[in-house]
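Handoff note, outgoing to incoming analyst
You'll be picking up this chain. Sequence as last confirmed:
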Amino acid sequence: MGKSFEQYQKQKLISSYFSVVLSIALVLFLLGGLGLLVLNTKKLADHFKEQITISVFLKDEAKDSEVDQLQKSLLQTEHAKSVIYVSKEEAAKQHSEEIGEDFLDFLGYNPLKNSIDLQLRADFVTPDKIEEISKNLTAKSFVEEVSYDKPLVGLLTENVKRIGFWVLVVSGVFTFVAVLLINSSIRLSIYSKRFIIKTMQMVGATKTFIRRPFIWTNVKLGMLGALLSILALGGAMFYIDKTFPELLLFDDIQVLGILFGGIFVLGILISLVSTFFATQRFLNLRTDQLYY
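Most recent structure output, in case you need it:
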């Protein structure tokens, strides 16, 4: 009978530990996924910003040397991501492919201009900076016109700011909820041992002595849960990277290392703090209050 009860207690303890580890792992996995979203929000925003093209249309009398010099000077600037020269013949061919017919046949001439397609780095894709770059290019005597989608630039800049703000708000809320969930799980685990805590206290054990094994046990559970969440997140990232390689999830190993390290440290800190306050609560209760 005693052996059966001991086995039951052991199974109950293992079940309690398993639920704590699982809850920590799931919550940290969700937090890690949210952290990954936060880190890649800027990357995705930068990707869309760098698709904006500024078309620099050149006058017909522009000299080859002037065009070459302009290309070289643009490539040397910090704001240029790519500089591509498009001749009027190439532009006509591309336009014909887009509309599905050769418009030169009924026009009889090519109305298009030689141009340079300039794509900027993401940090320079703002209405003010693009306008300044556009004015500098227009000031050149051999440049006829500088064209880009102004409404799209303004809309993109505004939406990136709005999305960034809400991602941070959601991240804060999720972090708070995650702490509450892990804290509740650990408190339930310690609640089942409240009589043991009070018994140890009644025989003269100090609060520090009583707290130490509980803190160490739950910190180890927090470490295990964090490791499981890191493995799960790494597996999910590997699958997503195979499916959508353009996201370049493993492009910045240092940032990923910081993310995984943050998850591990967070698992330890939340477990430590939650265990400390949970044990402190039961240490401060009177014996008759343990039954409520």
